[in-house]
């Protein structure tokens, strides 16, 4: 998943209303931010090296420390501890840890195949980006729209309905943001931009 991970923060929002929303967004994407840092450091380098030449099908990366199952569970435990220390809320810490781990669990369905512990350990996931990238993007879109719908329904049950205009903007933002990746699933951005 790319943008769909941000939508996961809306699952937690009704249950931790006083939490800073930036914290939920950060936790939902922490594995991605860790991967980007490690990629810049050359630890989890990607091939091709330029995003302009990459497609979902030709992108190769071993996300050993950021996206493999056991390191991700450890990252979730660290997030739980840190959030608990700073906010003194078991509920918020649990939701933040859940969002951190959910990132990789979602990638098992929509994303690249990850391993249990390292490059030589068994792979987990459908490798949908490598096998059926356009369908994977549609699944991600469905996931994001379900997250927003859950958020709206949960807020409605709490007696705090989401304004209709905001809901439309959320649906549109995720639909456009995810849909924009559809062409680059199989065609590099360099070719799409005519560079």
Describe this structure as you would to a colleague.
The protein is mainly alpha-helical and 195 residues long. It has one domain (4-192). The protein has nine helices and four strands, in the order H-H-H-E-E-H-H-E-E-H-H-H-H. It has a two-stranded antiparallel ribbon with strand order 1-2. A two-stranded antiparallel sheet has the order 3-4. Strand 3 (114-115) and strand 4 form a beta hairpin. The longest helix is centred in the C-terminal third of the chain and has 25 residues, at 133-157. The mean pLDDT is 95.
Q: In summary, what is this structure?
A:
The protein has 195 residues and is mostly helical. It is 59% helix and 4% strand. The longest helix is centred in the C-terminal third of the chain and has 25 residues, at 133-157.
């Amino acid at each position: 998943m790319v943008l769909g991970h941000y939508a996961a923060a809306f699952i937690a929002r009704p249950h931790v209303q006083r939490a800073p929303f930036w914290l939920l967004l950060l936790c939902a994407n922490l594995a991605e931010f860790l991967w980007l840092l490690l990629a810049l450091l050359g630890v989890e380098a990607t091939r091709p090296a330029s995003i302009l030449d990459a497609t979902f099908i030709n992108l190769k990366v071993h996300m050993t420390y950021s996206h493999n199952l056991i390191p991700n569970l450890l990252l979730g435990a660290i997030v739980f501890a840190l959030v608990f220390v700073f906010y003194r809320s078991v509920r918020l810490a649990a939701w933040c840890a859940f969002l951190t781990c959910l990132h990789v669990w979602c990638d098992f369905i929509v994303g690249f195949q990850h391993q249990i512990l390292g490059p030589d350990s068994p792979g987990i996931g459908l490798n949908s980006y490598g096998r059926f990238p356009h369908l994977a993007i549609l699944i991600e879109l469905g996931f994001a729209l379900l997250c927003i719908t859950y958020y709206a329904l949960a807020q409605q049950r709490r007696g705090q309905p989401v304004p209709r205009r905001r809901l439309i903007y959320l649906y549109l933002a995720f639909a456009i943001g995810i849909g924009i990746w559809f062409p680059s699933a199989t065609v590099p951005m360099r070719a799409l931009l005519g560079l």
